Known about the structure:
The chain is mostly helical. The protein has helices spanning 7-24, 26-53, 60-84.
Amino acid sequence: MKFRLRLGEIFLIEMVFYLICWLSNDYLGSMISLIFGSLFLAILLVSLVVELIERSRVPRWYFYFMLLSVIAPVLSAAIYLSITQGVDWMNVN
């Protein structure tokens, strides 16, 4: 029997991962979200450009997965910032 995760489950796992990073250390959460979000966005954009140039046999769920992987860090950052009203590492003491 094959165990296969659906896109919604993958999105929730990513959200939990990013929120744990944000809650443990807001600097770590912001850096992880920024790095992974921009990396997934770059890969998605390159994949879409290549797909427009030459049609490939990449399944459609791959593009949805990459899009959700771009949305997850942004949404988790928005949730964290709406709860805490800002980040501590940007305050000048």
